[in-house]
Write a structure and sequence with these properties.
By secondary structure, this protein is an alpha/beta fold. 31% of the residues lie in helices and 14% in strands. It has three helices and four strands; from the N terminus they run βαβαβαβ. It is globular, with a radius of gyration of 14 Å. The N and C termini lie far apart (45 Å).
Length: 107
């Protein structure tokens, strides 16, 4: 049985991870899973550098802007949700790209 491929993009702030993840997703038929502790929260756009719809350029993103800030959400919750997102992406025949978001290059 062949294991599925998962790409992980990580690096320091302002190193171009966002642009790379989106461009790569376009080229390899991928979708992005955000791995950022603050970008999971709805209505917390200032200071979190969430990518805009325009920046996403049609690429589906998971675990971004999906939980209310007044809800408890743990690392265990993230792990469960990330595994589910990976399964969904692979089921679609696409490649999961896990990325720590940073939008500072667009400012």
């Amino acid at each position: 049985m062949q294991k599925e491929k998962i790409i992980v993009i990580c690096g320091p702030t302002a190193s171009g991870k966002t642009a790379l993840s989106i461009e790569l997703a376009k080229q390899i038929n991928g979708e992005v899973i955000s791995c950022d502790s603050m970008q999971i929260y709805k209505e917390m756009d200032i200071g979190t550098a969430k990518p805009s719809k325009e920046e996403m350029d049609g690429i589906t993103h998971y675990l971004l802007d999906f939980i209310s800030p007044d809800k408890r959400y743990s690392v265990a919750d993230y792990k469960k949700d990330a595994k589910q997102a990976i399964k969904e992406i692979i089921k679609k025949g696409k490649t999961p790209i896990i990325c720590r978001r940073d939008r500072s290059l667009y400012r």
